[in-house]
Please model this.
Amino acid sequence: MSPIEPLRGACVALLVALVPPQEDGWKRVEPGLELVFPADHGAHPGFETEWWYLTGHLEDEAGAAFGFQFTVFRRGLEPGPRGEGSELRASEAYAGHLVLTDVARRETRFAERLRRASPLARATTGELDVRLEDWSLHRAPPGALSSSETLALEAGDPARGFAYSLRLTPEKPLVLHGERGYSRKGADPGNASAYASWTRLAVTGTLRLDGTERTVRGSAWYDHEFGSTVLADGAVGWDWFSLQLADGRDLMAFHLRDAAGNALAPSAGTLVESDGSARPLTAADFRLRPSATWTSPTTRAVYPAGWTLAVPSAGLELVLSPLVPDCELVSTSTDVSYWEGPIAVTGTVPGRGYAEMTGYHGSLAGRF
Amino acid sequence: MTPATARGGSALALPSWTAVLGAFHLRPRRALATVLGVAVGVAAVLATALASRAAVASMTDDVEALAGAARLEVTQPGGVPLEHLARLAPLAGELVIAPVVEGTALVAGSGELVRILGVDTLGTGEARFAGEIDARLGERFLRREGVLLARPAAAKLGLAVGRRLALIVQSRRVELELLALFDPPRAASAWERVLVADVALAQELLGRGEHVDRLTLAPRAGVPFDEAATIARVQALLPEGARVAPASERRADGERFVRSLTFNLTALAGVSVLVAIVLVATTLATAVVERRAVIALLRSLGASQGQLGAAVLAESAAIGLAGGLLGVVLGWAGARAIAADVHGSFATLSEDVLLGAVRLEPAWIVAGLALGLGTALVAAFLPLLETWRTPPVQHLRLAGVIEGRSHPRARAGVAVALLAGAALAARQPAVNGRPLWALVSTLLLLAVGIVLARPLLDLLARVPLAFLGERFGTPLRLAQAALAAARRRAAWAASAVGVAVALAIAMTTMIASFRSSVVAWTDQTMRSDLYLRPVASADGTSAGRIGSEAVAAVTALFGPERVDPYHETFASVGGERIVLGGAPFAVAEREGGVPFLDGRPFGVVFAEARARGGVVVNEPFERRFGLGRGDRVRLTTPGGTLEREIVGVYRDFSGHLGRVVLELEDFLRVAGDEGAESVGVHLPPEADVEAERARLRAALAGRFELEVLDAREVRAEVLRVFERTFAVTSALQGISALVAALAVVLVLTALVRERERELAVVRVLGGSRAQLGLLVAGQAFLLGLAGAGIGLGVGLAAGTVLVAVVNVQSFGWSLDLTVPASVLWSAAAVVPACLVAGWIPAWLSLRLQPQEALREPD
Model:
């Protein structure tokens, strides 16, 4: 018997390769959405798709820089309330992506997990507590341990030789994107997601890399998004950016792209001031232009490898450059290949951030 | 040169070669018969072993084939709660943890048993079933809309993709669509009876509630795997009762589970080999005696004992190999013929045993040949003695042989010693759950019979027969003389008959004791007027359970005080697996249930159990754990650990694992409701059973697939299962009898040939053909008589060992010893049977031309 590659198999392509979302059953995110926290940090089983996302930058005591990404996707497979029957019913599936980017070694390590909802994969409703096999992300409210709320992230992958244990403390209030969290993604008002972020979290913790444990600190960005039909008609993918600027401001901006590479109308963003106040940006408020390309040796997909991002109303003319060229993640659990990695920000205000580019290796149309 | 010296001369030059050829050239029919004898013995053992293996393989080989990449398995009596998944989460980076559910279902219509294998294909690397699955089919599979089948299984069931398969599982009829086929990974045969379903579907179909049958643990790619260290870490995360072990260990568990039966069946088949040894020994010894003149001459010419011995051994070896080869062929055919019966025997132990295909692997061919060779070589002992005892000077004697006297005192002494040994062996405990010493005891008893055969024949040879007059008396006296002259070989022939008779009598006694005990037990236990059980397969094995809704429907119809559901699961005591039962004690107290060993009425015991919150246990449990009335038993159940007082020990023939029965409410609390094994309905005395049965059937119709039996049918059913269990035993008994009959024919034929001259003299002196026939028949009669005498004595003793020791040690069942009258009949029937067997030599003797026989050799 040989060890197995756990994420290869008959049903693994299932998570996003499902037939297009049904008309019946799933709830839609509608205008007038009212999010209540901490309850809405938890899972929303009535909606088909949901994810919790952490990206950030870490430095160890010797100054070595790392990018990290932790994502758990929840995908509903059966709409409606859980009926009677087995607890193991594949009513929803969880996929996890765990990434460590070693900037100095220009190396990206990527691990995945996929499970049906079960005691090994669950997201609590009413509180942020997501567990997927040996990975977990949960929120501890302000209390005895800390005066402010903190997030705890524990995740690793023995086969790829890395693990991290991080405490993340929000430095700004939670930001609700769009209209109080209602983030429109298409012409149909139901074509939207609920979207909230902590745009700046202070990070402390440990990173274990190839058997060596090091103390790390840094900053992170947290996203939580859910909905049922998220992607606009005609969209094949998106380019998404989260930037933390040296002047204390944070910026989220995304372009939904059509097949020709043009930005679609629902493209949007949010500018967060250093005091935490946030202002939504529409597609007209910012300009995003790719400035270089990088061809993946694995998938032969051609990704942008540099951008200019201008937000005239905020006085920002930014140049965005990947810290490591190869941050392509070829995922079997979600059957999606995408580029996600740390970027450096230069221009009117320096800073750092994360970029995510999807739809360059096969369209995502009908899958989100 | 005389023909004798021609044969002898070349024998001297090439002793073994000519001796071998001699056997086949000189007496081809006898040689064939000897080969056949060996073949039948080998075939009996091989057929039993192969058929047992076919049945057991479904429990054991399949374990490995179905385990896939899993290296370790977590199990727990009564099932693994899903919360254990969360406990093991910290190790998920190194191990792929997957829940598995496995159970049996019945194919509606054909009544064939199939295994449902419930797997989690999502993220657990189950690429084995990928086959033709695309995302859409994968989604339907996850939505529990259908199942997957290995290609050979689909062919066997005649099912095409897209068609629906009707199953009866947990007393319900379900239809499942065949979504896709896959190519069976590795051992294809293991997948012939397997439906692959999503784990949740299997859990729902099989009524597993909130637990699964096991968690499999497979090392993740790229992570080093240290089995012992991983077991320790996994075990540390699990609570008491859960157990982690290598996946291969479940195979060993399966084998342990059925080993008593396998052992007993194979031992029984081994008796045929014993009879075959006796047969070959007698035949070869006879051949040696026939060739005394040649051997004597060879010795005179300087042939060493070694050379002569080698010749005998070579001849034995040739017979053994030929017999072994034929035995392999016959055994394979026999295994196919008795596979269903053997499966029936195993199925009474576990419904998890599916009937597999009988496969003849090269190792079995080698084993068959080795057994044949071994049989013949062991049997060569007697002819070797005969050869070495032939003095050179005897070559001048033309007359036949008079064998030396037996030494009755010495033999009596040996017999007493053997008897003492047998008695001592019978008192020894089981070895590893196998009644090894009881087998030794039985063999020693058979040896007693063999030792006593010669004095017995001597005795018979000296019985005065003059009173029978000339017409009968003379031929019988001649028969006595002939037997006395060849008493050594005659004794072996009588032993062969004796061993076969003993076996028959021992088995008859055991089966009769068993049957009468089971009948009495059934009468006491099956007191319900109506009895529900899940639909049984074509060969009588029940599949699944009676779901709670069906039990509720019955209860609604008759009221809880009249309905007697029996639930069952596995639990453990001190780490050993036992059966945990649950029954409503209030109903049992009123309506009866089980007979208690201490003779107390069931009403008293169950009242006490209710009052004190106690449990009752069965006899195999008491024997296995040494815990009886008044003791406290600590049970690890699916729902936690319980400690209860034992208030009674009841007789039970329905299992040998050991059973603890709890009050039903207590049981459901710790084991959950996964359906009842059976449900009894006690009707009021004045009720019309048929009318009530019709009412019950009507209430169940269209909703549940259940069989409703009345008391008479249940009793008949129990006996049918009983007969099925012993069908193989009877077949094996028949085979031994066949070999014994062959022995009689061969020895008598040899005796006739040896005595050709005497018989010719009798003819010349005016003996009629009838008297001549009577002479030969007389020998057969005396042999039969001796065999019957030996068989009766040894058989009764061996039967007692089987009843009092083998059954208790194998299954924990004590039986009341019942010696049926048929024992006497089967012993008596041996005499006419031997007369029939003597017909061939008698016919040969009548064909003799006196002139030919009396002609002086050149």
Summary: The first strand of chain B starts at residue 72 and ends at 75. The two ends of chain B are 9 Å apart (CA to CA). Chain B touches chain A through 54 residues (CB under 8 Å).
